[in-house]
Amino acid sequence: MAHKAGFVNIIGNPxxxxxxxxxxxxxxxxxxxxxxxxxxxxxxxxxxxxxxxQVLFSxxxxxxxxxxxxxxxxxxxxxxxxxxxxxxxxxxELGEKDLKDEGFFNKxxxxxxxxxxxxxxIDKGDEAQLMEALKVWxxxxxxxxxxxxxxxxxxxxxxxxxRILELLPENPPFYPKDQLTDKPERFFVNEILREKILxxxxxxxxxxxEIETEEFFEEDEIIRIRAIIMxxxxxxxxxIIGHKGSALKRIxxxxxxxxxxxxxxxxxxxxxxxxxxxxxxxEKQLRRFGYNK
Length: 293
Prior knowledge:
- The protein is built from nine helices and nine strands.
- With 293 residues, the chain is α/β, with parallel strands linked by helices.
- It has two domains: 4-167, Rossmann fold, CATH 3.40.50; 185-288, 2-Layer Sandwich (GMP Synthetase, Chain A, domain 3).
- The longest helix is centred in the C-terminal third of the chain and has 18 residues, at 246-263.
- The protein starts with a strand and ends in a 5-residue tail after the last helix.
């Protein structure tokens, strides 16, 4: 039997459930999930292997109109998703009517590659809403096959995956069969810490934060990690740390539990906070954090 392999790239507006869907496909929690927009900043690869297939799922940032250099770099990841996709998953949620960027929408409706439009969060509405949404999207994206799903409830995900396998081109595997992602361990330390900050801090704080894992030492029984939380201003540093370090301690405790579940062993986590002024608008800093090509 011929072997199939290809890139299946997931795009859509913020908060439509792209990361939840990615994790459902892969069966692992690779993409962090919060109820805030711009949770996903990078393009994250999740690899699903079978005896005769390899599916390379790619979760991208939600499509926005960039306001500063970091967001420009995030949209570059979305643009790259069109360049190497064998199949495009365009995910929308019930009640949504438009993609925020007309240029991206035009690319979707005129692409030559297969497009699967996934109408997500159908558990949040009734049958009348679903039928109306199906009609709207059939007209807007006539080149797409439409699937009604709930990524959170794992409804319809199996059917989408089966269709992906049917559409995959014949190729040898692109990655070793035991590989789950293209990202290093430190990346997931950074993401889990950033997720906790997105969950517990308000306003501009979560968007002004970047994480850098300075040390990652894995021993037989324990992983020792030292991570730096970067903020843009001195006042933000105080907010992250909290009264007598209480806020920073909460972030560390919650992140450590998730890291132990992710790596399957005990974790010793040290976190520190540093000011890195205006890093979101500094091309040199963005390259350092893996945003600019």
